[in-house]
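Lab notebook page, bench 4
Experiment: in silico fold of construct C2
Operator: M.H.
Input chain length: 179 residues
Purpose: comparison with the prior construct
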Amino acid sequence: METSQDFDIVVAGFKIGDMKAEKTENSNQTKFEINSLVEFWFFGKVHVEFLQTATYQETQLVEAYTHSNSNRGDFETSVKWSQDHYKVDAETYKFENTEPIYQKVYSSPAKLYFEEPKNGDVLISENFGMLTKIIEEKPGVYSINVNGNTNTFYYENGALQKVVLENSLKNYVIRRSND
């Protein structure tokens, strides 16, 4: 069974890109895939293509992957369960991480596009290969802090409406498309 949702990527009220979130379920496996494309002019053309996947066996995250292609280069991160830990090989803009994670994890940011989390849930960031904890700010509003940036997720009746993402260059919003 496949479910998908379209989102707009917005900076300062202007749409600069599109994002599609997909969830595919088979017998005991669930896969989440997020694809986005951003293009805008900011002292030169900015172009970013981003792919994020997370695969769950039963309820445990077993593999996560991100790939970004941008004016700043190509970056890739993989997180993979291996016997008793996650092997992490993260490379993003100005950041690298190969620290293994020695605990099973049952959530990641890609899953948050389809499922409202609970306060205290622990997730692995697919992009940085780091653990973070969900903090419920108020009913339907949750934040995570990943590598010094706070991302805030807003839900109505269990459905994600928007995400406000902190970024070193410019904060941006991912909001559910009305199409």
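Observations: The radius of gyration is 16 Å. Residues 2-176 form one domain.
Next step: discuss at group meeting.
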